[in-house]
Amino acid sequence: MEYPSERIRKAVEEFARLPGIGKKTALRLALHLLRAPSGDSHRLADALVDLRENTKFCKQCGNLSDEVLCGICSDSKRSNKIVCVVADVRDVFAIERTLTFIGTYHVLGGIINPMEGVSPSSLNIASLIERVRSGEVEEVVFALSGTPEGETTAFHLSRKLEPFQIKVSTIARGAPVGSDLEYVDETTLARSLQNRTEYADPLKKNN
C-alpha cells in the first residue's frame, strides 16, 4: 500500500507490530492521532515511555508494579497463607476480575515448554520455593492452563513443593481444558477457584 506520507507509513508499521493490530486498524489509529488535539499524542507518548522505563516487577510475586512490592502483596487485607501460581501477569488480571480470591499470587513468567526452549530454570520457580520455605504459606494453588505444558509445569512444581508438606491444590476444570485463563469468563473462573481440588500426582495415581 502506498502512503501519502513517510511519517504515516512509519506510524502504521509501528502500530501494526502490536498484538492483534492489523494494517487497517493501524492506519485508523494513525489517522485518529493526526485529527486529535496534539496533547492527546503527547500524553500517549509520555505514558508509553513511562510504562516502559518505570514499570517494575514485584520483588515477592513477580507481578507488575510501580513499587518494590505490588499493590496485592502490600495489601494487609490479603492472605499470605494462600499463594495462587499463574503463568503470566495477564492471569492475575483475569483472576482479580472475579473479585473472589483473597490470597496472593506468584507469577512464573511462563510454563515449561522444551520445544520453545523454556526450562524450569528460566521460570520464577526458585523464589516460589523460598516463599514456601519461609513457613508462612499454607496452600499453593495451581492456576495453570490445562495444556500438556501447563500440566508438566504443575507436576514439576508439585515435586518441588512435596518436602514442605503443605496443601497443594489446582483450580477445578470448570475452566475449559487447553484454554488460557485470560479467555475464561469471570463466573467460570471464580467457580473454578472456589471449587479447587487437591493436586493429584499423575505418577502416584497410576501406581
How far apart lie the N and C ends?
62 Å
* Morphology: elongated
In total, the number of domains comes to: 2
Strand order of the largest sheet: 4-3-5-6-7
For the record, the CATH class of the largest domain is Alpha Beta
Let me know the number of strands. Answer: 7
Task: Extract low-pLDDT stretches.
Answer: none
CATH architecture of the largest domain: 3-Layer(aba) Sandwich
Q: What is the average of the pLDDT values?
A: 90
Beta strand %: 5-15%
* CATH fold assignment of the largest domain: Dna Topoisomerase Vi A Subunit, Chain: A, domain 2
Main beta-sheet annotation:
5 strands, mixed
Structural class, please? alpha/beta
Order of helices and strands: HHHEEEHEHEHEHEH
Q: How large, in whole angstroms, is the Cα Rg?
A: 21 Å
Q: Helix count? A: 8
What's the structural blueprint in terms of helices and strands?
Blueprint: H1 6-16, H2 23-35, H3 38-54, E1 56-57, E2 64-65, E3 82-86, H4 89-96, E4 104-107, H5 126-133, E5 139-142, H6 148-161, E6 167-170, H7 186-194, E7 197-198, H8 202-206
Parallel strand pairs: 3-4, 3-5, 5-6
Antiparallel strand pairs: 1-2, 6-7
List keywords for this structure.
5-stranded mixed beta sheet, Dna Topoisomerase Vi A Subunit, Chain: A, domain 2, alpha/beta, 2 domains, 41% helix, 207 residues, Helicase, Ruva Protein, domain 3, 8 helices, two-stranded antiparallel sheet
